[in-house]
Amino acid sequence: MAEKILNSYETIFIIDATLDEEKVTALKDKFTALIEKNGELESVDEWGKRRLAYEINDRTEGFYYLVNFKADSEFPKELERQYKITDGILRTIVIRKDEE
Fold first, then answer.
1. Contact of 72 with 39, CB cutoff 8 Å
2. Cβ atoms of 7 and 72 closer than 8 Å
3. Is the distance from CB of 79 to CB of 36 less than 8 angstroms?
4. What is the reported pTM?
5. What residues contact 44, with CB distance under 8 A and at least 6 apart?
6. pLDDT, tens digit, for every residue of 33-55?
7. What's the whole-number mean pLDDT along residues 72-96?
8. Is it the case that residue 1 has pLDDT exceeding 90?
9. Distance from C-alpha of 12 to C-alpha of 30, rounded to nearest angstrom
10. What is the 3-state secondary structure (H, E, C) of the chain?
11. Most buried among 22, 28, 42, 45, by the most CB within 10 A?
12. pLDDT value at residue 2
């Protein structure tokens, strides 16, 4: 059987800063666990609470997280779907990194 090819990705997600600390941590843990379950988690970089470049849903601040991971090519679509249906997530992006 052929081995699955894992691509390198990075994702940034911004969590609503008006949520309490427990909910912010729960959302971060939810997405890091989802990534671990479906691929290889390489690093989680917590940028902390920052001012948004522009208002999103009447919010001016959010908690930023950068996650580097490896997964097969189908997983980013599922990750983006999960982001969209989760309350408290303001913005996300998933980028495939080129191999060096």
1. yes
2. yes
3. no
4. 0.89
5. 28, 32, 65, 66, 67
6. 999 999 999 999 999 999 999 99
7. 94
8. no
9. 14
10. CCCCCCEEEEEEEEEECCCCHHHHHHHHHHHHHHHHHHEEEEEEEEEEEEEEEEEECCEEEEEEEEEEEEECCCHHHHHHHHHHCCCCEEEEEEEECCCC
11. 28
12. 54
Task: Compute the distance between CA of residue 11 and CA of residue 66 in angstroms, rounded to an integer.
Answer: 6
Alpha-carbon span 21 to 76, nearest angstrom: 27
Considering the chain, what is the average pLDDT of its residues? 92
* Six-digit token string for 18: 């008006």
Give CA separation, 43 vs 33, 46, 56, 92, in Å.
12, 10, 27, 17
Q: What angle do CA 49, 50, 55 make, to 5 degrees?
A: 120
Structure tokens given for 60: 């001016």
